[in-house]
Amino acid sequence: MPLDTQLNMLESSGLIRLAATRPDLEYIFRHALMQDAAYQSLPKEDRMQLHAAVGEALERLYDYEPGEASATLAHHFAKAAVLDKAARYLTLAGDRARAGFANREALGFYQAARGHVERLRRGDAARAEKWRQNEGILCEVEGDLLELSGRHAGARASYDRAMLSLNSDERIGQSRLHRKMGYTWMIQRRHEKALRAYDEAEAGLGDGPAVPFAAWWQEWLEIQLDRMWLRYGRNDVAELSQLVERARAALEQYGTPSQRSRYFFGLVNLAYRQSCYSVTEETLANARAGFAAAQASHSINVIADAHFVIGVCYLIHGELQEAEAHLRDGLNLSERTGSVVIQARNLTYLVVTLRRLGRVTEVRARVAEAMSVVAAGQMWEYLATTQANMAWVAYREGDLAGAREQSQAALQIWRELPLVYPFKWTALWPLLGVAIAEGRLADAVEHARALLAPGQQRLPERVALTLEAVVLADTKSQPEKVHSLLDQAVSQARVEGYL
To answer: Is the pLDDT higher at 167 or at 180?
Structure first.
């Protein structure tokens, strides 16, 4: 019986109907249950053969451009148990989703592809060997996506699996994976583990190549640039300065736009630590050069992070509208790409900028969002900053107990971390204001001393001089003068946007 006749009979019986869009070619089931019953009634071998036939037909139809049909192709070949083709098209589907920043969907495709490769390895060693390198790539990309979303432990597990697929002579690949694991530890502020990973990454590279080899030098530069960020966080100024000089020549010859951007930002960070966070024209010039290099990279994540760095530079310099614009742009881009780490950086300092601008309502609205993002990324120093911003809102709204509690919680987090956080003023000013309001002058003086501590951002000159006068008056046991100067410091800090 011809197929058309069979389809017409099924339609007349009410089981299927002609599709409205393509009546000449397409029939559809009237109910999903009918479709499922018909499908399940087929023997398993017949179903597999049909899926294989459909997959092969789609391959011919899409020829060399299977991108938009890759997920469908993967589905049919998986159902047909053609595992290598299923893995191939799942990988293509993952690449397509990742290019569109559909990171959760991409991760699912890559993980499914890796599952098929593992099944292939168990059942057909010869064909699986062809996928050994691809399996390593899949694991590494999985790790990158997990790290992007803040799942640091999961990322490390994926990088470990990727390492198993590498031959002993694949030095650059091994080094890259060790470096990426180091980055996950650095973000969690597990600095000793990060340093060991970077040491392993550099040792794995071995000595420099006998002939110029850009890939080797670029991986070496990635390690140095990550080390710079770690040394900056720890306030290891001498080591940071040495890294800057060590990387300079290789960067000039082999550096990519992204690496040039990060190097300029390394110069910015070094200047911060050397100058107690006073921003000179040279520092601004380096920040702008880093931003320009980031734009030349055409990488949205690199550009989003560059918005964060230059935004903070403008914030410290007191150009608050410029800071706000950059940090909002960086936040929007990082939300698009799904990078939790970069999102947390931009959002945290956007809230600090809004605070400096005195926008209590907007800060209150943003802190819950910031708390969620920084917790997802496990970026504990920014969790403390968010609590400090909550303390400021509480102080401005007259909730002295809430301001004290949130400020103390922030300071406790910073004390427990292996870094020198330079913006403790975010918690100390509300705490100082509360101490004065409650008549605890001795506590207020201690907070003034902490605001002047080494490693902290130098406050505007008139505010810093007033705080220094507070400390001097306290050493001379002049309580009335201490009280008057503290009131003056609070008034100045309020005008400058610190309180």
So the answer is: 180
* Residue recorded with tokens 């290891």: 236
Residue 36: pLDDT above 60?
Answer: no
**Is residue 424 a contact partner of residue 450, using CB atoms and an 8 Å limit?**
yes
* Phi-psi domain of 457 (left: phi exceeds 0; alpha: psi -120 through 50; beta: other): beta
CA angle 481–486–490, rounded 5-degree value: 150
What spatial distance separates the first Cα and last Cα of the chain, rounded to whole Å?
86
Find, among 150, 146, 138, 218, the residue nearest to 179 by Cα.
218
Q: Are 288 and 329 in contact (CB under 8 A)?
A: no
Domain ranges of the chain: 395-499
What amino acid is encoded at 169 in this protein? D
pLDDT at 265: 97
Of 152, 135, 134, nearest to 143 by C-alpha is: 152
Residue 403, C-beta contacts closer than 8 angstroms, at least 6 positions apart = 391, 392, 394, 395, 430, 431, 433, 434
d(CA 59, CA 66) in angstroms, rounded, equals 7
Residues 6+ apart with CB under 8 A from 21: none
Retrieve residue 4's tokens: 């058309």
User: Residue 67 in 3-state DSSP?
Assistant: helix
Within 13 Å and on the Cβ side, how many CA atoms surround 104?
A: 3
In this structure, the dihedral spanned by the alpha carbons of residues 29, 31, 37 and 42, taken in order and rounded to 10 degrees, is 10
User: From CA 40, how far away is CA 140, in angstroms rounded?
Assistant: 38
The three state secondary structure string of 280-340 is CHHHHHHHHHHHHHHHHHCCHHHHHHHHHHHHHHHHHHCCHHHHHHHHHHHHHHHHHHCCH
Residue 122 in tokens: 């168990």
* Among 357, 358, 360, 332, CA closest to 347: 332
Q: How far apart are CA 140 and CA 158, in angstroms?
A: 6
> What is the number of other CB atoms lying within 10 angstroms of the CB of residue 215?
11
Q: Is 30 helix (H, G, I), strand (E, B) or coil?
A: coil
What is the pTM for the complete model shown? 0.86
Q: Which tens digit of pLDDT belongs to each residue from 301-313?
A: 999 999 999 999 9
User: Could you count the other beta carbons within 10 Å of the beta carbon of residue 368?
Assistant: 11
**DSSP H or E stretch at residue 276:** none
